[in-house]
Amino acid sequence: MPERDLTELSRVVREGVGRLNWRMRAERDRGGPSPLVLSVLSRLYRAGTHTPKALAEAEKIQPQSLTRVLAALDRDGLISRGRDPEDGRQVLVDITDRGLQTLRAYSEQRERWLAAAMAETLTETEQDLLGMAAKLMMRVADL
C-alpha cells in the first residue's frame, strides 16, 4: 500500500486549529483579562508554581514585561507570590482561587460560544466526527 502524503492534511489541520483558536480569542469579553494574562494564569494552573524567570522563559516574553503583568495580577488577587522555602532569594508565583475562577469563567465563556456555533452549524454526525478529531489531535499533541 503506498504511503500517504500527509502534507496537505497537516496544512488543513494547522489552518483549522489556528482559525478556530483565533475566533475563540476574538469571542472573549473585551473587558476581561488580556491574552497574556490568560496565558500566564493558564500556565500556572497547568504547570504549577514558577519563578518569574521560569515563567518569562516559558511564555517567551521579556522579564520586564512579565514584571508588569505579575504586579497587576498580584494587585487583583489572581496570583500569590512568596519566597522559595529552599532558596529564600527566589520568589515563587502561583495562581490563587480567584485567579482560577477568572480562568474558568473565560474558558466557560469560550465553550458556550463554541457549543452554540457547533449547534448552529454542524449536523449531529459532524459533531461526532469533530469530537473524534479533537481526541485524535490531543493524542498527536501528547507525543
What does this structure look like?
The chain is mostly helical and 143 residues long. Helix 2 (35-47) packs across helix 5 (97-121) and helix 3 crosses helix 4 (63-75). A hairpin with a 7-residue loop joins strand 1 (79-83) and strand 2. The protein has helices at 7-26, 35-47, 52-59, 63-75, 97-121, 124-141; strands spanning 79-83, 91-95. It has one domain (19-141): Arc Repressor Mutant, subunit A.
Question: What does the secondary structure layout of this molecule look like, with pairings?
Answer:
Blueprint: H1 7-26, H2 35-47, H3 52-59, H4 63-75, E1 79-83, E2 91-95, H5 97-121, H6 124-141
Antiparallel strand pairs: 1-2
Helix pairs in contact: 2-5, 3-4
| Oligomer type | single chain
- Helix run count: 6
Largest sheet: 2 strands, antiparallel
Number of strands: 2
Uncertain runs are none
Beta-strand percentage?
A: 5-15%
Structurally, the number of domains stands at 1
The dominant shape is: globular
Task: Please give a quick description of this structure.
The protein is mainly alpha-helical and 143 residues long. It has helices at 7-26, 35-47, 52-59, 63-75, 97-121, 124-141, and strands at residues 79-83, 91-95.
Brief descriptors of the model:
mainly alpha; two-stranded antiparallel ribbon; 68% helix; Arc Repressor Mutant, subunit A; 143 residues
